[in-house]
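dumping this here before i forget
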Amino acid sequence: MRPKKITSLLKIIAAAWLLGLQPTHGEEQVIKLVTWNLQWFPGKSPYAKPDAVKRHINELREAVLAMQPDILVLQEVSNEQALNEAISENTGLKLAVMSRFKNSAGFTDGQQIAIFSKFSADFVYSSAWKHGWSGPPRGFAYAALKVHSGTLNVIGLHLKSNLGDPQGNTAKREDAAEQILEHLNLTAAEKGQTNSKVVICGDFNTDLINRDVPSERTFQLFLKSGFFWSFEGIPHSLRVTCPAKGRYPAASFDHIFVKNLGRPVAAPLSQITGSDHIPVLLEFAVGSNTPTLKN
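structure:
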């Protein structure tokens, strides 16, 4: 597909989503999922003053009302009360799970993960990573949501940043990817799941190709496990989620992987403000012709 056609497609998807349109495919249910790193919510700094906190809450409120997602996966959040103030009941979204990761000093970290949803949940939890072979920071949040055709498994991640040693950072991301895939395999085996529908999304802090460490395996681990990368085939310029800033070039760090949900195309929503990251939208269908959970 030529870049112009891709641009037109993304514009159509984003416009339809912002207008709240719900495409239909027979008996299928179309779900709008958004993942977004909120930049130290609330306040855009761990030391934010009250006026910055209030402004950030208002920005998130306006963004959610504009985007109207069915599922919202957030990273870098620290205050549940502020989240609930911004994401009011009239959006239809309710907090399914919010992590409580500890930092190296043993205190609750300021960079948590939250999953909001319009769907009720069968099961939710969050977990810090095991120390593993590299000691990755933070962890993951998980929600098993009840949708039209069964269960949709949604996992939110925030992998190691690029601050510090590139090789060490890469190792921590690979370690975390291996752990979440192992977790999914064990869960599927314990519950007798066949062809489970899974979404893994968040701030991966890396791309298909890591320019600093080209040998990074993070993406390949997901791809080899049967996940589809929803930015596949999209040129880098059309999937930027972190605009250029100072010495840092434009980057595509925020991603959505799906399994047993077809090959849906994601779109950054660059018109939405409220963070140094751009939210990413994915619309996908669940229904009678998609694999379901074996009970």
